[in-house]
Specification:
The protein is mostly helical. Helices cover about 80% and strands about 0% of the residues.
């Protein structure tokens, strides 16, 4: 078991190295000159050269990449081109809204998607199963921003139950904080619920056809006990895996959702940085999202130790 943990941790190092290289390459692959963006269209060549030297743009790619990695190891992500603030400071300021949005979305999607998948598997080929699968197709088909606008119009503008814009910090109270993230979390959780429900249903149906399930039925074990004690535990691996993989959907969906509901989080920061071509901020956000995704998948690999006896052995 210890060897399994060490191998999984070591396997993340080359992944993060490749991610760092790709993120740093954004400066070269993206169109536009950062020096020209800072100085403006009417800048002289001397001003452009001075800005390039200050940003290190005159250095060869390997030297710049090595310098950037060295700064990363010391916790420095660079400085924003437009705000002239450290990228790390900007990320910390915007982190709470995004973490809140992703956490609430994860709770909603898991608490809704898993029971729907269980119900569909327990009532396979019935109207319950068809209804759940139709809902899953609907969740896959509707874009996040469309669902967001619909929820905002119905529950915000028409019914006046929840706010449609802005974010209230957790320090202002649990109630205001939860009200500010409910609508965007429901909008973001639509496709996530569909993925979890379909995966749960498929995993349970596969387990319910195994020989030990037929043996349990022959011994007179109740249907509920078979479903929740024997089948669900052995179907947990693909369910946990898809929950972790779905983090990528939350990261990409947060950019759209925060823009729709005017939430000042990392997604909104990413959208603004892309429009301004603020490359240091883009690099910092992408690196943070990539690191988070790798760490979540590492955590899922470690969870396998708890739910898969083959790993423990």
């Amino acid at each position: 078991m210890l060897g399994f943990i060490v191998r999984r941790i070591l396997s993340t190092l080359p992944v993060m190295g490749v991610v760092a290289l790709l993120v740093f390459s954004l400066m070269y692959l993206a169109p536009g000159d950062p020096a020209l963006l800072i100085a403006g269209d009417h800048a002289t060549q001397e001003e452009l050269d001075r800005i390039r030297v200050s940003l290190g743009l005159d250095e060869p790619f390997p030297i710049r990449f090595a310098t950037w990695v060295w700064q990363l190891l010391h916790g420095a992500l660079g400085t924003s081109i437009f705000t002239n603030l450290p990228v790390g400071t900007l990320l910390l300021e915007r982190m709470e809204p995004t973490i809140s949005l992703m956490a609430v979305t994860l709770v909603i999607a898991t608490s809704v998607g898993v029971p729907l998948g269980i119900a569909a598997a327990a009532k396979a080929d019935s109207w319950v199963d068809r209804l759940v699968m139709m809902g899953a197709v609907f969740g896959f088909s509707v874009p996040v921003f469309v669902l967001g606008y619909v929820l905002a119009y119905v529950f915000g503008l028409q019914m006046g139950i929840l706010p449609v814009q802005g974010y209230r910090a957790f320090s202002e109270g649990l109630g205001p904080w939860l009200r500010s993230v409910l609508l965007p979390s429901f909008a973001l959780s639509g496709v996530y619920i569909a993925i979890i429900a379909r995966t749960t249903r498929a995993a349970l149906l596969d387990v319910l056809q195994q020989g030990y399930i037929r043996t349990a039925r022959a011994k007179g074990v109740g249907r509920v006990r078979i479903l929740y004690v024997h089948a669900l535990k052995n179907a947990a691996l693909p369910i946990v895996t898809v929950i972790g993989i779905g983090m990528a959907l939350l990261v990409s969906g947060a950019v759209v959702t925060e823009s729709v509901f005017a939430i000042p989080g990392l997604g909104r920061l990413t959208a603004d940085a892309i429009l301004r071509r603020d490359y240091p901020v883009i690099q910092g956000v992408v690196l943070l999202f990539s690191f988070t995704y790798v760490m979540v998948n590492l955590l899922i690999d470690l969870v396998y130790i708890l739910i898969d006896p083959r790993v423990r052995l």
